[in-house]
């Protein structure tokens, strides 16, 4: 037992040694600068993996949550729309709250994986009281303009409102009298309002939510034109939607709505303003506060001004002139490529709940291209070969979490580093700019060039582009980017198979088209504008002197030569990688040495322990045998003593008999002796006579 304890202790020492050696693979989130696109001034709760459960799960309100990635260009463009949604629904906070979670920040990707988020941005409505074990209850709402999202949100809240007593009653009251209305509302209500509208109108429900925080003092109902109650208001279809106040004496009074030709003011806001004006005039409501509304109006005006400035920027004519030549990179950096691959396989692909069928085929296709053409270091290439082998062993597919386990495999001299601190060539002027999408384009171009340079006379020109397209289709996180890329590459199967440069030129044209479309948008880095590539600083002979933005103005032959050189293996900067690699290899060797030494000592000690155990076992058996021999000897001695005792007893008995009859014995002895003498003498006499 003592030896087993020693062995366990040695194993703990080995574990401690390994744990304290600097690792070659670290948390993916630590390798990039991370931000949130929002703050509390936006009326949006910034959620993280640390606060998500305590804030959202088991909440007394519903939650509308945007799951996004800060690198996603469309998420950046959509941020102002989501801010507008949050401001419009701020007064609904007793019913539904608005939050946002950056899936690219810290350990937030685990929450996104738990909720099966497969694209950014994703808007999901989570009902009140939803536990972390029941994430399937979430309802997706298409990420469209603010008005469309608010209508979609109202529809979903309408479907579930009967489950929650404190929520507004969205069901139209069509078969009821004015007097009966008061019997259905709390006695504390001081104002009863009825909105007459068409059944598919959202005005009534919108107003109910706007004033839901005053539900103890204001009751708002809606009646629709397909019922009977609205006829009592003596209005026609052209008058709806219309607003009425119902008094306790059973009379109704219409509240005039100031119609406004300003298209920026919707019907809901007009009704909202009319009700607030009525409340201020009548003083029916205690502690009525307009501060929330005033703050919302100010914030919305600020948003509109920002959008106007953005539109002005987008409408400006841009050229590919770059004022600061220091922003031009003449080499591709391996750090960017490996960071992109690390995020791709550790975070993006595992986000898919189940990788099966066409998604599985796309993953195999992508890994096959990487193993063939990625100009990586030996350990990285060995890693991808092993990963492809492991994936091929499971042709029926696997879950995203199972794939993550495959990616985290530990193999000597085969690894995908995840310890790079930040992007190099693809570093943006702020954390939300460039980064992963930039590195992904670098990777794509590098693969097309590498295929040409390592290929034979006849290559499959669609192999790399199709692998790229299918990866984007099934795994890339940005939804709109994914859809746009599918449109850009719709003719990918029509590439000229006789032209070995076709894939290189095709991807270059697609990338320039994307840059042209994204010029001036909010996702553009002001220090790295979206211009046509290559610019005149990188290639002085590639483009005609008029610096036109069109691809047709490039000299294709010279551009091909430039691309073949720029994305070639020899132009990949591995200086940062080399320093890291040596350190990693040193640490790996030291780790192996310490582990092997510790294991040797453990094995040696284990053998000694086994010998000690065997010796102890022999000694124990010897002691047991000696004990048994002692018991046997003792038993024999006892028996021997008993036999001697019996003999002595027999002798003593005989002696006692002799003592009591010594005379008889003497007489008998004499008789025997005489008889014997006589017989002997007779025999002797007869012998002489003969």
From TrEMBL:
GO terms for biological process: protein folding. Keywords: Disulfide bond, FAD, Flavoprotein, Glycoprotein, Membrane, Oxidoreductase, Signal, Transmembrane, Transmembrane helix. The chain crosses the membrane at residues 657-676. Residues 1-26 form the signal peptide. Residues 26-159 form the Thioredoxin domain. It catalyses: 2 R'C(R)SH + O2 = R'C(R)S-S(R)CR' + H2O2. Residues 429-537 form the ERV/ALR sulfhydryl oxidase domain. It is an enzyme of class 1 (oxidoreductase). Its EC number is 1.8.3.2. GO terms for molecular function: flavin-dependent sulfhydryl oxidase activity; protein disulfide isomerase activity. Pfam families: Evr1_Alr (PF04777), FAD_SOX (PF18371), Thioredoxin (PF00085). GO terms for cellular component: extracellular space; Golgi membrane. SUPFAM superfamilies: FAD-dependent thiol oxidase, Thioredoxin-like. Its cofactor is FAD. InterPro entries: ERV/ALR_sulphydryl_oxid_sf (IPR036774), ERV/ALR_sulphydryl_oxidase (IPR017905), QSOX_FAD-bd_dom (IPR040986), QSOX_FAD-bd_sf (IPR042568), Sulfhydryl_oxidase (IPR039798), Thioredoxin-like_sf (IPR036249), Thioredoxin_CS (IPR017937), Thioredoxin_domain (IPR013766). PANTHER family: QUIESCIN Q6-RELATED SULFHYDRYL OXIDASE (PTHR22897), SULFHYDRYL OXIDASE (PTHR22897:SF8). Belongs to the quiescin-sulfhydryl oxidase (QSOX) family. This is Sulfhydryl oxidase. It comes from Rotaria magnacalcarata.
């Amino acid at each position: 037992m003592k030896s087993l304890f020693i062995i366990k202790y040695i194993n703990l020492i080995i574990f401690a040694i390994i744990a304290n050696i600097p690792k070659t693979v670290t948390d993916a989130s630590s390798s990039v600068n991370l931000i949130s696109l929002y703050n509390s001034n936006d009326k949006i709760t910034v959620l993280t993996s640390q606060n998500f459960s305590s804030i959202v799960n088991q909440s007394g309100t519903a939650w509308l949550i945007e799951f996004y990635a800060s690198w996603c260009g469309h998420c950046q463009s959509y941020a102002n729309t989501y801010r507008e949604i949050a401001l419009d629904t701020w007064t609904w906070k007793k019913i539904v709250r608005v939050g946002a979670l950056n899936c690219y920040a810290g350990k937030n990707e685990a929450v996104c994986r738990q909720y099966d988020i497969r694209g950014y941005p994703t808007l999901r409505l989570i009902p009140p009281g939803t536990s972390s074990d029941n994430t399937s209850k979430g309802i997706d709402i298409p990420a469209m303009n603010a008005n469309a999202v608010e209508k979609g949100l109202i529809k979903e809240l309408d479907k579930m409102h009967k489950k929650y007593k404190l929520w507004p009653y969205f069901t139209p009251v069509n078969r009821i009298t004015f007097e009966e209305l008061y019997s259905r509302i709390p006695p504390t209500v001081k104002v009863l309002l009825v909105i007459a509208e068409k059944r598919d109108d959202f005005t009534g429900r919108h107003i109910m939510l706007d004033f839901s925080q005053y539900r103890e003092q204001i009751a708002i109902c809606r009646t629709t034109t397909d019922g009977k109650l609205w006829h009592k208001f003596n209005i026609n279809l052209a008058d709806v939607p219309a607003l009425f106040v119902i008094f306790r004496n059973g009379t109704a009074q219409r509240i005039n709505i100031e119609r406004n030709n300003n298209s920026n003011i919707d019907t809901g806001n007009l009704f909202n303003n009319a009700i607030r004006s009525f409340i201020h005039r009548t003083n029916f409501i205690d502690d009525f506060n307009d501060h929330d509304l005033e703050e919302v109006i100010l914030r919305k005006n600020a948003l509109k001004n920002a959008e106007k400035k953005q539109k002005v920027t987008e409408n400006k004519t841009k050229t590919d002139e770059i004022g600061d030549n220091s922003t031009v990179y003449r080499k591709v950096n391996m750090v960017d490529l490996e960071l992109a691959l690390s995020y791709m396989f550790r975070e993006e692909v595992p986000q898919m709940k189940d990788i099966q069928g066409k998604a599985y085929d796309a993953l195999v296709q992508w890994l096959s291209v990487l193993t063939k053409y990625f100009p990586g270091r030996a350990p990285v290439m060995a890693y991808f070969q092993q990963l492809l082998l492991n994936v091929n062993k499971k042709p029926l597919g696997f879950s995203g979490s199972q794939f993550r386990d495959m990616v985290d495999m530990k193999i000597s001299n085969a690894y995908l580093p995840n310890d790079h601190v930040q992007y190099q060539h693809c570093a943006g002027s702020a954390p939300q700019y460039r980064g992963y999408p930039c590195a992904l384009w670098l990777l794509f171009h590098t693969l097309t060039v590498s295929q040409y340079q390592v290929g034979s006379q006849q290559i499959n020109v669609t192999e790399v582009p199709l692998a790229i397209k299918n990866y984007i289709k099934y795994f890339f996180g940005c939804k709109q980017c994914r859809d746009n890329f599918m449109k850009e590459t719709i003719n990918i199967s029509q590439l000229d198979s006789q032209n070995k440069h076709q894939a290189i030129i095709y991807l270059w044209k697609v990338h320039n088209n994307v840059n042209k479309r994204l010029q001036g948008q909010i996702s553009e880095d002001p220090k790295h504008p979206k211009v046509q590539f290559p610019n005149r600083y990188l290639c002085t002979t590639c483009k005609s002197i008029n610096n036109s933005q069109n691809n047709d103005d490039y000299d294709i032959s010279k551009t091909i030569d430039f691309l073949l050189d720029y994305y070639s293996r020899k132009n990949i900067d591995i200086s940062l990688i080399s320093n890291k690699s040596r350190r990693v290899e040193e640490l790996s060797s030291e780790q192996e040495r310490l582990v092997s030494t510790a294991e040797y000592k453990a094995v040696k000690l284990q053998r000694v322990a086994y010998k000690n155990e065997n010796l102890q076992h022999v000694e124990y058996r010897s002691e047991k045998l000696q004990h048994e021999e002692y018991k046997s000897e003792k038993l024999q001695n006892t028996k021997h003593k008993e036999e001697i005792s019996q003999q002595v007893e027999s002798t003593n008995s005989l002696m006692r008999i002799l003592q009591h009859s010594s005379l008889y014995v003497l007489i008998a002895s004499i008789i025997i002796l005489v008889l014997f003498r006589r017989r002997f003498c007779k025999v002797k006499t007869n012998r002489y006579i003969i």
